[in-house]
Design a protein that fits this description.
488 residues; Neuraminidase; five-stranded antiparallel sheet; five-stranded mixed sheet
Length: 488
């Protein structure tokens, strides 16, 4: 008997524990919609159940937030004024934000690149306001345009593009991102020069313009009243190309995905106004053009390299929806080239970055709906995807395995969940618990088990409320799984 058990133990040494099922996935959100041209933004408007898509070619489209929707309406067509393809693929209609009082005033704001004013000069960045002419569906026309800010670009790249209003501010303060203007290596040294608007996040008031401007400068902006000639519109600086940023409605923090030069991509939460994010002294956490002095630099919470085909960070959102409670409070973002989507948790003593899903499309941007649920945009597929729970439903034992895993009881549970598994003959069993991000949180059994049924328990103490996956693997490789829900 002992020899037989020893043989089974030795056999077990050659078994590899199985990874959990994919916890998060993406699916086409609106399969009946026609494909877009180049979708780069997805936004909502106060009081509207519609979703609005920013198409880089110069069109903003809208549709009902219904999985079966098939009709698309045009909010505005800007193709006659937008420079979208030449000389740089980074040009075009890049950003959209709706006024907090949209239902009353019908105002929305766009961020786009306009053609050269004359031969030999580069394009212009335009921040403009438009007003609705019709409400159902919402429609606006070019003749309602009011240019809020116009900036002559030195090169054709690094335009930034994001627009957003802060959900917790009483005044209509518009946040907008501008890159360093290009070209490579920041040749004009804009990143570390707050006397220019380039390479910055700006914060301007769109309702109360100052004299000589089409916007106002909020009195609590960090550089108001400075004597060094620094631009008072700046909220944060030291950025290369902040293609996408977002404001966490839970904390008010501003999260920036800043596209790197040649090696490092970075994600940085800005929690204090006036932050210097370091470009071009630093690329991410790494000295880029010295001498490098870390004093006063707000370094990224996370950086990743260009290894394995990764190329450009696509900034996302701190998840505040209900469909994936295990992601609440985590920053979800991606890489444009590989389509990998990650979740970054900065609430722990050491930031934790977890891959959620490796998609097969170029991921240009994220968006959230009115419920806080998360969407991803495919640059090459020209579709909108919904971020959903992966295939973690209860799995029966494989036919003929002779192994069983009974349903846990109670489920949902608050203190202890009891699980019963069975074998027709003695063998090695691993019974492990994973959270929905694929992290192993407990091993309930890992070793020999005799024929018949055995009972194990999963204790709630030390674990956060949410969904967990119990996965059982037996010696012949058969697996089965079920979900557990811990509630408080």
């Amino acid at each position: 008997m002992m020899l037989r058990l020893l043989a089974l133990v030795l056999l077990g040494l050659f078994l590899t524990p199985i990874a959990p099922a994919q916890p998060v996935d993406v699916e086409v959100a609106f399969p009946n919609l026609p494909r877009f041209r180049v979708p780069v933004g997805l936004e909502t408007a106060p009081g509207e159940m519609r979703l609005f898509v920013v198409d880089k070619v110069g069109v903003i489209l809208s549709f009902e937030n219904d999985p079966e929707v098939s009709r698309v309406d045009t909010l505005i067509d800007l193709r006659s004024v937008v420079s979208s393809s030449q000389p740089s693929w980074e040009e075009g209609l890049l950003g959209l934000a709706f006024h907090p009082d949209f239902q009353e005033n019908g105002h929305f704001f766009v961020h786009y690149t306009a053609p050269r004013l004359e031969s030999g000069r580069s394009h212009r960045t335009i921040i403009s306001r438009f007003a609705l002419r019709e409400r159902t569906p919402p429609v606006a026309y070019l003749d309602s345009e009011v240019v809020i800010l116009e900036l002559q670009q030195p090169f054709e790249w690094h335009n930034g593009g994001q627009l957003a209003f802060h959900p917790d501010e009483d005044e209509a303060n518009l946040y907008l991102s501008l890159g360093d203007g290009g070209s490579g290596h920041d040749p004009l040294e804009h990143g570390q020069n707050p006397k220019t608007l380039f390479g910055s996040i700006l914060r301007i008031n769109v309702d109360d313009p100052d004299e000589g401007l089409n916007y106002g400068i909020p009195s609590d902006n960090p550089f108001v009243g400075n004597t060094g000639g620094w631009r008072e519109e700046i909220w944060a600086y030291g950025l290369r190309n902040p293609w996408r940023f977002s404001i966490d409605p839970g904390t008010g923090d501003l999260w920036i995905g800043d596209v790197g030069q040649g090696q490092w991509e970075e994600v940085t939460p800005v929690r204090e106004p006036g932050a210097n994010l370091g470009w071009d002294m630093y690329e991410g956490m790494n000295c880029f053009e010295g001498p490098c002095d870390p004093e006063g630099i707000t370094f990224p919470a996370w950086e990743y390299s260009h290894a394995d085909g990764r190329c450009s960070v696509t900034g996302g959102y701190v998840y505040r929806g209900a469909a994936l409670p295990e992601l609440v409070g985590e920053y979800v973002y991606a890489d444009f080239c590989t389509g990998q989507i990650w979740a970054l948790n900065t609430e722990t003593s050491t930031p934790e970055n977890t891959e959620l899903v490796d998609t097969d499309f170029l991921l240009s941007s994220f968006g959230v709906d009115t419920e806080g649920e998360l969407y991803a945009l495919g640059w090459d597929t020209r579709r909108i995807y919904r971020v959903v729970r992966g295939s973690v439903a209860n799995e029966p034992a494989a036919p003929g395995s002779g192994a069983t895993l009974r349903a846990a009881f109670p489920n949902p549970f608050t203190d202890t969940a009891t699980l019963t598994f069975g074998l027709t003959e003695a063998g090695r069993v691993q019974l492990a618990v994973y959270d929905v991000l694929g992290r192993e949180v407990a091993v309930l059994h890992d070793g020999l088990a005799l024929a018949g049924e055995q009972t194990v328990r999963f204790q709630a103490e030390g674990h956060a409320p949410g969904v967990y996956i119990v996965r059982m693997t037996v010696a012949n490789g058969d697996t089965m799984a079920q979900t557990l829900t811990l509630v408080r």
